[in-house]
Amino acid sequence: MQTRFNLPIELIYTVAPVLIISVLFYYTAIIQEDVNKIRPNPDVTVNVDAFKWNWKFSYPQTMGPDGQPVYTIGTDTTIPILVLPTDRSILFVEHSADVIHSFWVPDMLFKRDVFPGNVINKFETTILQPGAYVGRCAELCGTYHSMMNFELRAVTPQKYDQFLAAKGPGRRRSRR
Question: Under 8 Å CB-to-CB from 72, ≥6 apart: which residues?
Fold first, then answer.
């Protein structure tokens, strides 16, 4: 048997979903703002440059003997290693030379797309645990996409400073 109008049930079926969606939207907006928050002076900055089919990581706060930032770059036979300190705020500045790539370290539970052209993505994080973490491109970017891997090594701040000193015997602009 069909009833003609049941205003209380119609109101419940309308108001309840609107309330649920409003609450979910509110918390999504709050969390998204927190995830995208960037401090004015991070402790470490690393430039992430993606290209077919590898990565270049440069440390703009440390200059090499040639006056250019020190960097590590992957080749056909070498996986690049990104060395970062624990317990410091790290700003990633991402750019792509050719197509859309995606910087992804599964253990960090975070992925950010890397776009070509004048689009520069940024995100900030702090790594708490030392260790070696697998990183890869998570965006299908071409023929050798599956080979676009890297390793992130999180080390103590002292070992990070030693790494930079060995990599770039030039001057260092420290923030801490």
Answer: 56, 57, 58, 80, 81, 82, 83, 167
